[in-house]
Amino acid sequence: MSELSSRDLIDRARISDVVIAYATGLDRRDWPLYRSIFADEIEMDFASVGIRVGTFAADRWVRDARRLFAGFEATQHTSTNHVISIHGDEATCVSNMQAEHFVARREDEPLAPGQERWTIGGYYTNELVRTPSGWKLRKITLTVTWSTGNPDVSRIALQRGREAAEA
């Protein structure tokens, strides 16, 4: 492995911070933080969980995430093993991930015990660009390699999030 410069080490730390802020923003429902990590236009590929492939205005992506995550009781996204490659003002960070999603059991929507949880694991391929305000995500590809639990938890959360937005 070649020796890294001080700038390379700082860039790697800042890139890792952006990737971690993705999970932190979602799990804490910190929407200003979540929005701050994206370029204005982003490409998202979440085909491995059956949703969202395309190019979006970051504001729209965050708005839709906010609606979906309003329907979860809790989530926990873990990001590990960041492998970062920097090429000038562009970078790639491949990171292992595990995401836990929980919905509360409700009488009007009975879930069997254990059906209120969905866990996925795999990795993100994050593409970033250096901007005057720091590193920003411009493309994310989620590759799910395993899952357990009830994948309908996301559908239930989305419905609940829509209901909350209409109230």
**What string, H for helix and E for strand, traces the elements in order?**
HHEEHEEEEH
| Number of β-strand runs | 6
Strand order of the largest sheet: 2-1-6-5-4-3
What name is given to the CATH topology?
Answer: Nuclear Transport Factor 2, Chain: A
Share of helical residues:
25-40%
Question: What attributes characterize this protein structure?
Answer:
single chain; 6-stranded mixed β-sheet; 34% helix; alpha+beta; 4 helices; 167 residues
Please tell me about this protein's structure.
With 167 residues, the protein is of the alpha+beta class. The protein has a single domain (6-166), classed as Nuclear Transport Factor 2, Chain: A, CATH 3.10.450.50. 34% of the residues lie in helices and 44% in strands. It is built from 4 helices and 6 strands. The longest helix has 23 residues, at 6-28. It starts with 5 loop residues before the first helix and ends with a helix.
